[in-house]
Amino acid sequence: MTRVFWLALALLLPAAAAAAPAILVYGDSLSAGYGIAQDRGWVALLEGRLKREGFDYSVVNASISGEITRGGLERLPQALARTHPAVLILELGANDGLRGLAIAQMKANLGRMIELAKKARARVLLVGMKLPPNYGPDYTRAFESAFGELARRYRVALVPFLLQGIAQDEALFQPDGLHPSAAVQPVLLDNVWPALGPLLR
Length: 201
Hints:
49% of the residues lie in helices and 11% in strands. By secondary structure, it is of the alpha/beta class. It has a single domain (22-199), classed as Rossmann fold.
């Protein structure tokens, strides 16, 4: 091979690496890694698992602590245009519920975000959430069922409950009682991975 060939190859390699399809994680504090080191959050751990499993994806975390679905909807067009994701992991709604906001509006916001992602040719994984029982049975049931209803309506993948397996154990949470500790972030990733895997084609 000529020296010119190897030089050209060296110039092309960074571009090829940069062209790896992106997974856009679009959520709230549960995905932003609130209260823990960024490299210990489940989104950071996702990068390592992708590599171990042989998937060539980059991970972009656009999660913001405290985000509600209205704010997420406002930000999403720019995020999609910037990252051109192959997969969108949509983890929003918890703060709508904790604030007692209208579930119909939350569903409309999430639905519109799914529509925008599909229009941008991204495969969507919707991440569900549950509320503590003190919000009342009617509201909590309607909140929880909203995610499944959206997944069926738009035919997207669903994680029924991000905090499955840890929600009932206060010792697994930070002192605020809302955010999982660093030690259980692998459990969150384990909850996401089965639904995410089929989308990584």
